Structure prediction request, 193 residues.
Amino acid sequence: MKEMTRRGLLAATPLAGVALAAALPGKTLGREKPAPARAECFWIGPYPLADWYKSRPDKRSPFNIGTGPSYDDIVESLKECRVYLLEQRIVDVAGELLFGKDEDGFPRVALEGKLYHSWTVDGKDFAICVEKVTSRGVCTDYHRLPAVRIVSDIAIDIRFEGENGFARGSCSQSHILRKPVAYDINGKLLPGK
Prediction:
């Protein structure tokens, strides 16, 4: 009986070649297995939440005039909260740098500091709380070197609660950063667009 060589065996049974290649440790069809992609995170910021709140065109307190904390009190309290963009940089198997994927939730918006503030004014309780943060309008440009990502919309929803002596009420306001945030794959902030 003629002895079958490895090459002859692979030619005779195509599926055996796949099974044999899978069984060989550290090899992929005669080549070394590429190293898996590596992910690392970096952040852009901080952006003081008070600065965003002050950029609103309406400079009045959301509470009835004379019944709750003033506009300046609210701005002062929001100075204790900072906003960051959390981004992911992926080094793929070929060594190319890629941004984290939208479907994986990147970029993410993160908050740091005091997110809940309360006051008592004339025996009545008032509070504000950061409810939700989102980023929208993400554009990634791999044609530029290094690659660039622009986040055109960062929205922060703040809930206001208060009482007027007869009833309690609440409302939410969305505060949107009016200036896009642009940065490269290395985490360098780029001049405003």
The longest helix spans residues 14-23. The radius of gyration is 27 Å.
